[in-house]
Automatic annotation (TrEMBL):
Protein family: Belongs to the cation transport ATPase (P-type) (TC 3.A.3) family. Type IV subfamily.
Binding site for ATP: 355-357, 474, 515, 538, 572, 652-654, 768, 774, 797-798
Domain P-type ATPase C-terminal: residue ranges: 820-1074
Protein name: Phospholipid-transporting ATPase
EC numbers on record: 7.6.2.1
Topology of this chain in the membrane: Multi-pass membrane protein
Alphabetized UniProt keyword annotations: ATP-binding, Magnesium, Membrane, Metal-binding, Nucleotide-binding, Translocase, Transmembrane, Transmembrane helix
InterPro entries given in the database record: ATPase_P-typ_cyto_dom_N, ATPase_P-typ_P_site, ATPase_P-typ_TM_dom_sf, ATPase_P-typ_transduc_dom_A_sf, HAD-like_sf, HAD_sf, P-type_ATPase_IV, P-type_ATPase_N
Domain P-type ATPase N-terminal: 6-61
Species of origin: Astatotilapia calliptera
Pfam families membership: Cation_ATPase, PhoLip_ATPase_C, PhoLip_ATPase_N
UniProt key word Repeat: no
């Protein structure tokens, strides 16, 4: 421990919690008051404690502020308590540590760098470990000149060595280090490291050396703060709140000037009744009045706004989690909203960036076809059945005892070639049998019993051979080799055992040349029992063909034709090649490879150079083709999203032909498109020309240079933006571009031309792209189009674009949980994206817009009544409302009704939302709430406040009771004004609510009852006697509300406030109906049909006249579900027609 302290190595304890029992209160309050709204209300509370300024009791601000802080604090405390529990559970786990020659049980928090720990099967890995030994022999015996089994069998040993490695970092796929042992250095890379947080599988035990502990582990290095995504409405709210502050300052300034004028002209008359305090003259009084009105009018900035927004987002997130129509029963996978801050953004998506494999397809691969030495094999059923040249029934593999009974193949010629001993065919399947070895290095944490090495990839289970492949296509290829007689059986650090046509062959493993996204290929070098050295390589055809021997040119042409055919069928392809190596050259290359592998600087670059050197002049063996079928409902989903004017871009690593075929299969590319452009040039000039030609064809009148508008947005207009405007195009077009061309197109000189041309197209497909290019494409659109983007994928190669996009969606499929863990929303099937956007996203957006519009309306109306009252009270900062009404207005009287509306409201139900995807368009254009809508809301509030103040004022002026007594006192006027206000805002909410539930009724009527109950209680004699100074409105309620003219005034105010709104909406719907109005009108017409007419699409007239009803009835009982071809019966996505399609159909059938 002293040695570790000298080097400041971190211990293995982790801490993810923020607070402890002593720091929670100060730190949490500090964090909360860093928010502008909370700091503002704290400032108001301080002002209210100054007697010369305060015009309201302190509790009118203190109670709401404390409530908001308490709710947020309880939430933060609950989250931190859970983090403390998790930290405690992890830190107090036990592990065996080798100390003083004995294994001692220690807690994880006490493990230190340099300790050797022993892990057993299914245990979590304690820290980042250098793997020393597994099961019964050392994993790294090819590199270490010691036998770890002997070392650990005798615990009284002296194991002396030194590990030098890179400093702690967050690169999960990279590790550089060296082990010095007995004067020799050995390379350490990612394959020799076990990362904290993973689980040990399929081995009895292993020993590891701790190299990083606690916060230095790669897991904790990657657990830093994520990119905080904020919606466009969040940004707009910040700007509007800033404008509201300016509006508040303007009102206070106007009233301050009014106070100065009044004090000069009229104030001297009242000094004998209300003498000024010593030392306060008219100018100072006006200055104090400014701050008094800041307190009185503070409700224009509602303190409950942000809390209410969070409640609404949380509620809508639960609705997504609970949606049974997005639940996938096959995998028991529900939809999950992994964030609660982006729901309304789901209703504004303009661009979708999708992966193909595992996202649009099932990622369940089957070996379909192959090309070996220029001959094509595989399913050609339709063609061959007509010619009757060969037997294409299912191949019988009963001759192979190790064959997989589930494997299906229909070309007997291939089996005959293998069994006849054809050398090319056998070499082809020999490479595939070694394929598992080539893939297994990427499975860092797979351990299997009876094979003590961590890199083996199969295990035995009750006599059955089972492969554990990294991906489904790899498993399909190895299974194919297994059925054709080449069975991968086991692996040690130095050898690979393969059963070839019933004979066991042991190959010596010399080197593995790893796969990378740049190399797009992988190789293995082995020595056969006869001493022959061979390099086997598999990878993308573009990479393999560039490295072939010139003698393979003819074979390459034939194989390329086969590959194009396979890609045209939508199959995934790989090319296979080999190379015989000279022993002398191999010795020299191996020595240089060892030197590069132990280098601490430039290791990857040196190894890449060596790999390029040896992977030259290879001989082509052939190519493979595996099928990956589309997921259910993908074509229908894409068609619906396209009708919602959402542009879909597919970013895939597949060949151009494969991606194009899949594009047509899933309706991304459609036959009715005017043209589909292909960009495949190899130079920047050629790519620019192709993009320009495509753009000129789509929009001939467009300017040659793209127009980019620069502007400033955001808080205080500090953020600079560049926006490329959309250009109108007549018809739909598609664009296909490969990864090589995309690399040039993403350069600074061409990226705007790429974006301009691509955005004119309805669909874009990018082929052969890397994960980095996926993120760059998303970032390009995000930067210049100022549109909301969504990225969806299922694998680790999709994580980068998922994080860059405004919204990331992960699909929990065959490639693990990397995409899901990085996403904002997740589900099991692509078809659920339709419901997530068109139903939940649209509802969430509409609800949030309604909330903001209504919230600002009710608070501006509330505040502006105070503003008008200032002109009648001598600008004295007296309030028009009773103090407790001000306190409860936002927190009690109007809180629940608006929450009920914004959690349950629906303009149309989910079925009609899917039936009419055009309903989604207003959200993309941000029509429901924007700066214009905000100004309209303020104007509406001004009108309502004028009515709410002056009508009660006029009706109460010189008014008497039935018994002749005056009721025109301040308290009665305050009660009348606040009652009118509440009834109007409740009615406005009812007008804004489209979908009524029992909860909505309870909240609205319950809040109204609560208002009258609380008001009666606070104006009662009992409250006055107990708290005289706090409840001065004694008897006001019963004295005012029993007068007919008071209720008449309430009714008149209500009519004058609501009637113009109803009239305006009616006229607007008639003259300028929106798509929502059209759909609701359409629904209204359909709902007027009788139940019988609505439930039958066709009458019985034809049946009666055809006499078929006289036929003998069947004695067989009718099934419960007669329409078995319906999408609902088959539990498939429903396909709906649009209004336009339905109108065209009705016109076509009309006489």
């Amino acid at each position: 421990s002293t040695f570790n302290l000298s080097f400041r190595y971190a211990n293995n304890a982790i801490k993810t919690s923020k607070y402890n029992i002593f720091t929670f209160l100060p730190l949490n309050l500090f964090e909360q008051f860093r928010r502008l709204a909370n700091a503002y209300f704290l400032f108001l509370l301080i002002l209210q404690l100054i007697p010369q300024i305060s015009s309201l009791p302190w509790f009118t601000t203190a109670v709401p502020l404390i409530l908001v802080l308490s709710i947020t604090g309880v939430k933060d405390a609950s989250d931190d308590i859970n983090r403390h529990k998790c930290d405690g559970q992890v830190n107090n786990r036990n592990v065996d540590v080798l100390m003083d020659g004995q294994l001692k049980n220690e807690k994880w928090m006490n493990v230190q760098v340099g300790n050797i720990v022993k892990l057993e099967n299914n245990e979590f890995i304690t820290a980042d470990l250098l793997l020393l030994s597994s099961m019964c022999c050392t994993v790294l015996s090819s590199n270490y000149p010691v036998n770890c089994l002997e070392l650990f069998a005798d615990t009284d040993f002296c194991f002396s060595g030194e590990v030098r490695c890179e400093p702690p970092n967050n690169r999960l796929d990279k590790f550089k280090g060296t082990l010095t042992l007995n004067g020799e250095r050995y390379a350490l890379n990612n394959d020799k490291v076990l990362l904290r947080g993973c689980t040990l599988r399929n081995t009895e035990w292993c020993f590891g050396l701790v190299i990083f502990g606690g916060p230095d582990t790669k897991l904790m290095q990657n657990s830093g703060k994520s990119i905080f995504k904020r919606t466009s409405i969040d940004h707009l709210m910040n700007i509007l709140v800033l404008c509201i502050f300016g509006f508040l300052a303007s009102m206070c300034s106007i009233l301050t000037i009014g106070n100065a004028i009044w004090e000069t002209n009229e104030g001297s008359v009242f000094t004998m009744f209300l003498p000024r305090e010593p030392g306060i003259d008219a100018p100072l009084s006006s200055f104090l009045i400014f701050w008094s009105y800041v307190i009185v009018l503070n409700t224009v900035v509602p303190i409950s706004l942000y809390v209410s927004v969070e409640f609404i987002r949380l509620g809508n997130s639960f609705l997504i989690d609970w949606d049974r129509k997005m639940y996938y029963p096959k995998n028991d996978t529900p939809a999950q909203a992994r964030t609660t801050t982006l729901n309304e953004e789901l209703g504004q998506i303009k661009y979708i960036f999708s992966d193909k494999t595992g996202t649009l397809t099932q990622n369940i691969m089957t070996f379909n076809k192959c090309s070996i030495n220029g001959k094509a094999y595989g399913e050609q059923l339709c063609f061959c059945k007509k010619l009757k040249m060969h037997d294409y029934s299912r191949v019988d593999f009963s001759w192979n005892n190790l064959a997989d009974p589930k494997f299906s193949f229909h070309d007997h010629r291939l089996v005959e070639m293998v069994r006849s001993g054809n050398p090319e065919t056998q070499e082809f399947f020999r490479l595939l049998s070694l394929y598992m070895e080539m893939c297994s290095t990427m499975q860092m944490f797979k351990f299997y019993p009876y094979m003590p090495i961590k890199l083996s990839s199969l295990f035995y289970l009750v006599g059955e051979l089972n492969y554990q492949a990294q991906s489904p296509d790899e498993g399909a290829l190895v299974t194919a080799a297994r059925n054709f007689g080449f069975v991968f059986r086991s692996r040690t650090p130095e050898t690979i055992t393969v059963v070839e046509m019933g004979k066991q062959v042991i190959y010596e493993l010399l080197a593995i040349l790893d796969f990378s996204n740049v190399r797009k290929r992988m190789s293995v070098i082995v020595r056969s029992p006869e001493g022959k050295l061979t390099l086997y390589c598999k990878g993308a055809d573009t990479m393999i063909f560039e490295r072939l021997h010139p003698s393979c040119n003819k074979l390459m042409e034939v194989t390329t034709n086969h590959l194009n055919e396979y890609a045209g069928d939508g199959l995934r392809t790989l090319a296979l090649a080999y190379k015989d190596l000279d022993k002398t050259y191999m010795i020299d290359w191996k020595h240089r490879q060892h030197e590069a592998s132990v280098a601490m600087e430039g290791r990857e670059e040196k190894l890449d150079e060596l790999y390029e050197e040896i992977e030259k002049d290879m001989m082509l063996l052939g190519a493979t083709a595996v099928e990956d079928k589309l997921q259910d409902g993908v074509p229908q989903t894409i068609e619906q999203l396209a009708k919602a004017d959402i542009k879909i871009w597919v970013l895939t690593g597949d060949k151009q032909e494969t991606a194009e075929n899949i594009g047509y299969s899933c309706n991304i590319l459609r036959g009715e498109m005017k043209d589909v452009f292909v960009v495949s040039a190899n130079t920047a000039e050629g790519i620019k020309e192709e993009l320009q030609n495509a753009r000129r064809k789509m929009c001939p009148e467009a300017a040659e240079e793209p127009s980019v508008f620069k502007s400033r947005v955001g808080l205080f207009w500090l953020k600079k933006t560049e926006t490329m405007q959309d250009e109108k195009v007549d018809g739909d077009y598609g664009l296909i571009i490969n990864g090589h061309s995309l690399a040039f197109a993403l350069e600074k000189k061409l990226r705007l031309e790429l974006l301009r041309t691509a955005c004119m197209c309805q669909t874009v497909i990018c082929c052969r792209v890397t994960p980095l290019q996926k993120a760059q494409v998303v970032q390009l659109v995000k930067k210049y189009k100022q549109a909301v983007t969504l990225a969806i994928g299922d694998g680790a190669n999709d994580v980068s674009m998922i994080k860059v996009a405004h919204i990331g969606v992960g699909i929990s499929g065959q490639e693990g949980m990397q995409a899901v863990l990085s996403s904002d929303y997740s589900f099991a099937q692509f078809r659920y994206l339709q419901r997530l956007l068109l139903v939940h996203g649209r509802w969430s957006y509409i609800r949030m817009c309604k909330f903001l519009g209504y919230f600002f309306y009710k608070n501006f109306t509330f505040t502006l009544v105070q503003f008008w009252y200032a002109f009648f009270c001598g600008f004295s900062a007296q309030t028009v409302y009773e103090d407790w009404f001000i306190t409860f207005y936002n927190m009690v009287y109007t809180a629940l009704p608006v929450l009920g509306m914004c959690l349950f409201d629906q303009d149309v139900n989910d079925r009609w939302s899917l039936y009419h995807p055009q309903l989604y368009a207003p959200g993309q254009k941000n029509q429901y709430f924007n700066k214009k809508a905000f100004v309209s809301c303020v104007m509406h509030s001004c009108y309502s406040s004028l009515i709410l103040f002056f009508i009660p004022w006029a009706s109460m002026h010189d008014t008497v009771r039935d018994d002749g007594k005056e009721i025109a006192d301040y308290q009665s006027f305050a009660l009348l004004a606040q009652t009118c206000l509440l009834i109007v805002v409740y009615t406005q909410l009812c007008l804004d609510t489209y979908y009524w539930t029992a909860v909505n009724h309870f909240f609205v009527w319950g809040s109204m009852v609560a208002y009258f109950s609380i008001t009666l209680t606070m104006c009662s004699n009992g409250m006055f006697y107990m708290f005289t100074s706090s409840f001065p409105f004694i008897g006001t309620t019963r004295n005012s509300l029993n007068q007919p003219n008071v209720w008449l005034t309430i009714f008149l105010t209500f009519v004058l406030c609501i009637l113009p709104v109803v009239a305006f909406r009616f006229i607007f719907i008639q003259l300028r109906p929106t798509i929502n109005d059209k759909v609701k009108k359409h629904l209204g017409r359909r709902s007027t049909r009788s139940g019988y007419a609505f439930s039958h699409s066709q009458g019985y007239g034809d049946l009666v006249t055809s006499r078929k009803f006289l036929m003998k009835r069947s004695t067989k009982r009718a099934p419960l579900f007669t329409q078995t071809d319906s999408s609902i019966f088959q539990n498939q996505p429903q396909h709906y027609r649009t209004i336009a399609e339905e109108a065209e159909e009705s016109q076509g059938h009309s006489p």
